[in-house]
From TrEMBL:
InterPro entries reported for this sequence: Autotransporter_pectin_lyase_C, Beta_helix, PbH1, Pectin_lyase_fold/virulence
Top-level taxonomy: Bacteria, Pseudomonadati, Pseudomonadota, Alphaproteobacteria, Hyphomicrobiales
UniProt xrefs under Gene3D superfamilies: 2.160.20.20
Pfam families recorded: Beta_helix
Protein name: Right handed beta helix domain-containing protein
Domain of life: Bacteria
Signal peptide interval: none
Segments forming domain Right handed beta helix: 459-590
Stretches assigned to coiled coil: none
SUPFAM superfamilies documented for this protein: Pectin lyase-like (SSF51126)
Length: 827
């Protein structure tokens, strides 16, 4: 049928059958032409209906079956309006188009397309509406369900588009145009390669519906906005679910489900645009990468969930992204991969609130950028591998109320190395109220200018090392912070670090060190370092550097403090230990004042070994076991108002160590109050007390000692000097057994002091000299010099002890002394 320049054409209940060529209906008219086809069936034609020009075309309850290789079921050119209702259009496969419109207004309702390569094409300027269960079934080789371009506004509602057996082609394709607008409401697309693709346009909106059995879901390359919402569902098997190109200004996904094929490939959402993308209440699963962004600003919120496979990423951010915000988001892996991986520009800002990351190899990685903020009481990072949070070169990092959990302290991957929070470089990192557990190291940091602060009741537990920091930065561990570790370190610093710990509690289990200073400067104020009381562990160990302790408590440890080299100042607090020593200084200088050193028994059932594996400390001997203070290797120790109690040996000095002690006391239970293997000491107003008149107050193997107003009491013997020089001014000596003072080589000067024998043995002696003979350089045996000079001393022998006993050429000189009933012997 051919119509030309006719005003009105009506066809009803008509069948038009061709011979495989030409058009079933061909009409060209003026602006007023109207065509109405009701119940018309067109078949065996190359082109079903061709209308160009006119006012309107209406087709109802009919069908078009065309056979041309590149035929068109219905062609509408320059017609103001076209309406197709309850129509069936059947093509011939490759090259066939169901409906082609060159503009105007086109409405399709309950139209069925079959075996077409392109279901509907509309170009130019106009409006396309497809509604009410319109269905497009593409040819077996695939094709395009709906193709629009130019300044068309396309609105599809309750439309179904299904590809062919080969799964090729595109469901909806926007060719381009600055004002092109596409809206899909409850549209179902399946079995094509690409669900929806817009090369260029103003906006693409998808409300509800589904895109399934596709390689890629939705692509928008250029335009103002992409919107996907209202329970839309995208299931893809290839590269991605949604891709936003670099020239798209904004993208908004809300209440959307995106699902991959579960084979560990593909990306849920790709963002390349420089604008902003928002994901709200989105569910992404069965993908390798949840969200990939390399430009613009990314916001994910509203209970969005991301489940990724294998060694993938929950969120992957590249360097052109300026802002990333996650709020109320859940990311879950398969015991591998990254929760969040971001490598940004210098201006990148990342904000996370109430984010849950679980079953990942690495929680959050940020390389470069301006800041990272993680907050919210529901923020949790549960990881299986190397770290929970790692930042490199980031200006500012702030974590608040975040819970970070590893697999176990030595159970992570990477040969067991796992870190809760790891910082390399940058300027500041603040952890407020953060809870870290089940990792090897809680917090690890290194950098030249990095400032790390732990505050607000932060807790680190079930770790091997609580905090480890090196470099030349600063560390502040502030009040209410608690660190629990096992067989490692509570806080370890090195390099040129400056660290300050305030009102912090460090509790260790097993062996290890509460605070370890490899180098740098450390201040501890009101800090408690506590062991498990089972005879292992050291409160503080310093290899080099400077440490100041104020009102700090070291307790329930085997060894309170070990100083190998450097400067230490401790004021106030206390040291309670159960092992070899309370404090050992084997190099450098130490000043202690106003605290107590106490030895206690173990809480466990085992015994404390006399020997240990420490290096840089004195060789273990009976004298050195259980000492309050050890001084060796030219170290210098000054103590003021320090009280030492319950120890086996009060102080042990060797290796030319130097001990100065003033206004303090030593209460010992073992063999010696002070033992000199080799060293020097000055005691002023010091009171040395034994237990049950056992042990020796002072024993000197080799050294020099000056005492002023010092007392020795409740001891078996007062002083034994094998070799050395001793001067004692003021004070007193009370002894019960063999001697008050025994000298074998050297000299002793006693000035204005009192001596009292408390025993009942007539062989006891106040001043005893047993000079030994030695071989000199010439090979001749000569007697050692052994002289005791006593000036103004008071001796009370209780009518039992001897006053002086001298042998082998020793000498005793007594001047202005007062005695009570003692015999005098010189042999």
């Amino acid at each position: 049928m051919v119509v030309r320049d006719t005003v009105t054409v009506n066809l009803t209940e008509t069948k038009i059958t061709g011979d495989g060529k030409g058009a079933g209906v061909y009409a060209r008219g003026g602006t007023d032409m109207t065509m109405r086809l009701d119940g018309v069936e067109v078949s065996q034609v190359a082109m079903g209906v061709y209308v160009k020009g006119g006012k309107s075309l209406t087709m109802k309850r009919g069908s078009v079956d065309f056979t041309g290789s590149y035929g068109v079921g219905v062609y509408v050119g320059n017609t103001a309006m076209a309406e197709l209702t309850e129509m069936k259009i059947v093509g011939s496969g490759k090259g066939s188009t169901g409906v082609y419109a060159g503009g105007g207004k086109v409405l399709l309702e309950k139209v069925t397309f079959e075996a077409v390569e392109i279901g509907v094409t509309m170009l130019g300027k106009g409006t396309l509406r497809m509604e009410k269960e319109t269905r497009i079934s593409l040819a077996s080789g695939g094709g395009i369900g709906v193709m629009v371009g130019g300044d068309v506004t396309a609105q599809l509602s309750k439309v179904t588009i299904e590809g062919g057996r080969k799964g090729k082609g595109t469901g909806v394709y926007g060719m381009g145009g600055t004002n092109l607008t596409i809206s899909l409401d409850d549209v179902k697309i399946s079995k094509v390669e690409m669900g929806v693709k817009m090369l260029e346009g103003k906006s693409l909106t998808i409300n509800g519906g589904s895109i399934k059995e596709v390689q890629m879901g939705v692509t928008m390359m250029k335009g103002e906005s992409l919107t996907i919402r209202e329970n839309s569902r995208i299931e893809f098997m290839g590269n991605y679910g949604v891709m936003v190109g670099k020239d798209v200004k904004s993208a908004d996904l809300a209440k959307v489900t995106i699902e991959g094929d579960g084979k560990g490939t593909g990306t849920g959402v790709i963002m390349e645009g420089s604008g902003k993308m928002t994901l709200d209440k989105v569910g992404i699963s069965k993908v390798k990468t949840g969200v990939y962004a390399d430009n613009g600003a990314l916001e994910i919120k509203g209970r969005t969930t991301i489940d990724f496979k294998g060694s993938g990423w929950g969120v992957y951010v590249e360097k052109l992204v300026k802002n990333v915000s996650l709020d109320d988001v859940t990311i879950k892996g398969e015991d591998n991969g990254y929760g969040i991986h971001a490598v940004g520009s210098e201006e990148m800002v990342i904000t996370m609130k109430d984010v849950t990351i679980s079953k990942v190899g690495k929680g959050v990685y940020v390389g470069g950028g301006k800041s990272l903020t993680i907050s919210g009481e529901n923020s949790t990072i549960d990881f299986m591998g190397e770290y929970g949070v790692k930042v490199e070169g980031l200006v500012t990092t702030h974590l608040t109320k975040t819970r970070i959990v590893g697999k176990e302290s030595v159970g992570g991957r990477n040969n067991g190395v796992s870190v809760g929070v790891y910082a390399v470089g940058g300027e500041t990192m603040t952890l407020t109220g953060v809870d870290i557990s089940k990792v090897q190291t809680g917090v690890s940091a290194e950098g030249r200018e990095l400032m790390v602060t732990l505050e607000g009741g932060m807790r680190i537990s079930n770790v091997q090392t609580g905090v480890a920091m090196t470099g030349s930065g600063k560390l502040a561990v502030e009040k209410e912070t608690e660190i629990q570790f096992k067989d490692g370190y509570g806080v370890m610093v090195g390099g040129k670090m400056m660290a300050k710990l305030t009102e912090t509690r460090i509790k260790g289990e097993g062996s290890g060190y509460g605070v370890y200073v490899g180098k740098g400067k450390v201040v501890l104020e009101n800090v408690t370092v506590e062991g498990d009381g089972k005879g292992k562990g050291t409160g503080l160990y310093m290899a080099q550097g400077a440490v100041r302790l104020k009102d700090t408590t070291l307790r329930d440890v085997a060894k309170g403090m070990t100083i190998s080299e450097g400067v230490v100042h401790m004021e106030g607090g206390s040291v309670t230990f159960s092992g070899r020593y309370g404090i050992s200084v084997s190099g450098g200088n130490a000043f202690f004042s106003g605290f107590k050193i106490t030895r206690q028994e173990n809480k466990g059932t085992g015994t404390v070994p006399d020997a240990d594996a420490d290096t840089g400390t004195v060789t273990n001997t009976v004298a050195g076991v259980g000492a309050g203070v050890e001084v060796s290797n030219l170290a210098k120790v000054m103590m003021k108002e320090v009280n030492i109690e319950g120890v086996k040996t009060g102080a042990y000095v060797m290796g030319s160590g130097f001990l100065v002690m003033g206004k303090g006391s030593i209460s010992f239970k073992g063999e010696y109050g002070i033992y000199f293997d080799q060293g020097y000491a000055v005691l002023n107003d010091v009171h040395i007390t034994g237990s049950g008149h056992k042990g020796t107050g002072i024993k000197m193997g080799d050294g020099q000692l000056l005492m002023v107003d010092t007392t020795l009491k409740e001891v078996a013997e007062g002083m034994t000097i094998v070799k050395g020089n001793v001067s004692m001014v003021g004070g007193s000596i009370e002894f019960k057994r063999e001697h008050g003072v025994l000298l074998k080589q050297g000299s002793v000067l006693l000035n204005n002091l009192s001596m009292k024998y408390m025993g009942n043995d007539s062989d006891a002696t106040f001043l005893k000299v047993e000079a030994d003979s030695v071989v000199d350089k010439k090979g001749e045996r000569v007697l050692n010099t052994a002289d005791i000079k006593a000036i103004g001393i008071k001796i009370d022998g209780q009518a039992k002890a001897r006053g002086v006993y001298v042998t082998n050429g020793g000498r005793v000189m007594l001047l202005w002394f007062r005695c009570v009933c003692f015999p005098f012997y010189v042999l």
